[in-house]
Amino acid sequence: MTTTNGAAPIKTEGLTKHYGDVKALVDLDLEVQRGEVFGFLGPNGAGKTTTIRSLLHFLFPTSGSASVLGLDVATNAVEVRSRVAYVPSEYSLYPKLTGAENLTYLANLRGGVDTDYVNQLAARLEVDLTRKVSDLSTGNKQKVGLIQGFMNKSELVVLDEPSTGLDPLMQQELQKLITEVRDDGRTVFLSSHSLAEVERVADRVGILRHGHLVVVERVDALKRKAIRRIDLEFDEPVGAEDFSSLAGVRSAESRGNSVVVSFEGSVNALLRAAIDHNVVNVNSREADLEQIFLTYYKNGAPDAA
Amino acid sequence: MLRNHLLGSVFTKTVRDWLLWTTIAVIALWAISAMYILIMGSTGDAYVTMMEDFPEALANVYGVNNGTAEGLAMSGIFFIMAPLVLLTYAIGLGSSAAVGEEEAGSLPMLLTSRLRRRTIVLSKSAVVAIGVVVIVALTWLGVSVFAAVVDMDLSQQNVAGSSVQLLGMVFLFGALSLGLSAWRGSSGLGIGVAAGLAFLSYFVTTLLPVVEELADVAKLTPWYLFSGADPLSSGVDVVLLGIALGITAALYGFGLYTLDRRDLKG
User: Fold this and answer.
1) I want to staple B214 with a disulfide (CB 3.0 to 4.6 A). Which of A275, A300, B7, B208 is the partner?
2) Which of A78, A100, A101 sits opposite B114 (nearest CB)?
3) Which residues from chain A sit within 8 angstroms of residue B104, using beta carbons?
4) Mean pLDDT calculated for residue range A34-47
5) CB A151 within 8 Å of CB A107
6) Confidence bin at B69 (pLDDT 50/70/90)
7) How far is CA A275 from CA A109, A233, A245, in A?
8) CB B115 to CB A78 under 8 A?
9) What gap in Å lies between CA B5 and CA B11, rounded to an integer?
10) Nearest to B24 by CA among B121, B115, B138, B127
11) Higher pLDDT, B164 or B69
12) Residue B2 predicted with pLDDT over 70
């Protein structure tokens, strides 16, 4: 086995993938550090799954290179895959087998697994492994897929939209599992289109759009920089101009008795201006992915493909 | 929980998955063989007389053999029905061996073990090949038993020869289906082309010899590699069998070569 101690779990240099004229991934330079949860964010079609499939050498890159656990994926694909746990976004199990039989098969192919740990995972995710997969709901199928992803205690766990079909309680359990992997010194690469899903567990995030990596940033720094929105409701109509010139305010719009303000940075100046009037209600919204995109695109990030 | 020996490898799981198809094929061919042998054993002479009045082209399509009731029965079994069942089996499962997991979306899961794509295809295609041999062997056994029951006099050597010759052609079309499916990642392409070519080559081989000038063209089809030397009368033709197996190996090698050089679909 190739020595990989100290190598970055994931490293890409100029990784590019075109499908004919479509540029699915463009010059991706990315380094994920050992023991971190790395959130890989982007809207559907941004190139997240293309990146993951290139990392596992399911796709041949148009140019550039990728290494996983210190191994060049082009020349060590089999070893790379055998040391990585992967839960795809569209997880396909064998419908005629039970959940347990599916996991047995996959465990056997990898040389065995800790059965007690599998049962623990099934209990935590509240899934009945004795039922045929064809009889399971989408959420329960996803849970079987997640058990497969975590049961091998792999050095690197790659999750592509893992919370699809999970209810909020199970999403919390998934977050705990991800955190446990990190606490164990292992690495999680978490791909999602939902900032809310990623921000709770990720140490850093990379944002992908139209195949370009827009930014890699710590989650807290990213949110600080993001454009957020606040709805201020007053007891009478208030002009938007009272807010539009304040520091950090990107836009302000008056709607009846409310003013909707988009801003970045500190909210202090905004609140001070608001209390000059009779405030009835304040509704603050978390920055969502599109708003964060707007932040970076306004700063001149590339708009590709 | 983790106890199920048939889930120990791709090969054993494939045996588990495809055992039903193999069983159906064997039972179908036993039923067909019993029907042919029982009917020809009791009223075969009338059929022989009737067939003698058929135009040559039509008689060729039915695979009339040596003008006896036994020949007519064996011709119906080994020239028409066994190829039909076995080609359906080999073309369908050959394609599935190449891209079944990929099209079902389960291949990424399998590949996160120590398996190469070609290892998975090798394991699955081995099951298809063994399945074909088992079906042919059990059909031969069934034919022998049914013939003995009705005191039909068979040349075991020629029945064996036809069975072996048939294997060569079935492997060829199975490998064609596998190779094309693996190349483009599409079962539709492999099954469509292989089934279409099998159908076409059957009619070309049986009908073209009626026209003297076109008789040699019939020798260019895969079906000729099976029927050309009339194995029901003459036993195995080693040269034609060798050509069929050679083409099979080339198509199979092409499939494996291209499989590892294209993107995974899905």
Assistant:
1) B208
2) A78
3) 92
4) 92
5) yes
6) confident
7) 65, 11, 16
8) yes
9) 11
10) B138
11) B164
12) no
Average pLDDT over residues B176-197: 97
Beta carbons of A218 and A203 less than 8 angstroms apart: yes
CB B104 to CB A105 under 8 A?
no
Contacts of B261 in chain A (CB under 8 A): 60
The whole-number average pLDDT for the span B57-64 is 68
Pairing of strands A84-87, A156-160: parallel
At A288, the pLDDT band (50, 70, 90 cuts) reads: low
Direct distance between the N- and C-terminal alpha carbons of chain B, in angstroms, rounded to an integer: 31
- Structure token pair of residue B40: 């020809």
Residues B55 and B76 sit within 8 Å (Cβ to Cβ): no
Lateral strand order in the sheet of A228-234: A249-255, A258-263, A228-234, A279-285
CB-based contacts of B147, cutoff 8 Å, min separation 6: B37, B41, B70, B153, B154
Interface pTM (ipTM) of the complex?
0.85
Angle made by CA atoms B140, B146, B150, in degrees to the nearest 5:
140
B88-126 pLDDT, tens digit each: 999 999 999 999 999 999 999 999 888 999 999 999 999
User: What are the distances in angstroms from CA A211 to CA A13, A31, A44, A130, A200?
Assistant: 14, 16, 11, 41, 25
Q: Do A188 and A38 contact (CB within 8 A), yes or no?
A: yes
- Give the predicted TM-score (pTM) of the model: 0.85
pLDDT tens-digit readout, A142-192: 999 999 999 999 999 999 999 988 999 999 999 999 999 999 999 999 999
Could you tell me if A177 and A71 are in contact, meaning their C-beta atoms sit under 8 angstroms apart?
Answer: no
Q: What is the number of other CB atoms lying within 10 angstroms of the CB of residue A288?
A: 16
- Mean pLDDT, rounded, for A13-25: 95
Q: What confidence score (pLDDT) does residue A196 get?
A: 78
Record the tokens describing residue B243, joined without a space: 């050509």
User: Which CB contacts under 8 angstroms, 24+ apart, belong to B26-32?
Assistant: B26/B134, B26/B135, B26/B138, B26/B139, B26/B142, B28/B85, B29/B77, B29/B81, B29/B82, B29/B85, B29/B135, B29/B138, B29/B139, B29/B142, B30/B138, B30/B139, B30/B142, B30/B146, B32/B76, B32/B77, B32/B81, B32/B85
Q: Give residue for tokens 């394991």.
A: B123
pLDDT confidence of residue A302: 45
Cα atoms found within 13 Å of the Cα of residue A169, Cβ hemisphere only: 3
Q: How far is A40 from B70, CA to CA, in rounded Å?
A: 71
Q: Confidence band (pLDDT; 50, 70, 90) for A240?
A: very high
| Interchain pair A82, B109: CB under 8 A | no
Nearest by CB to A58, from B104, B115, B264: name it: B264
CB contact under 8 A, A84 and B112: yes
Measured in degrees and rounded to the nearest 5, phi and psi for residue B101 equal: -70, -35
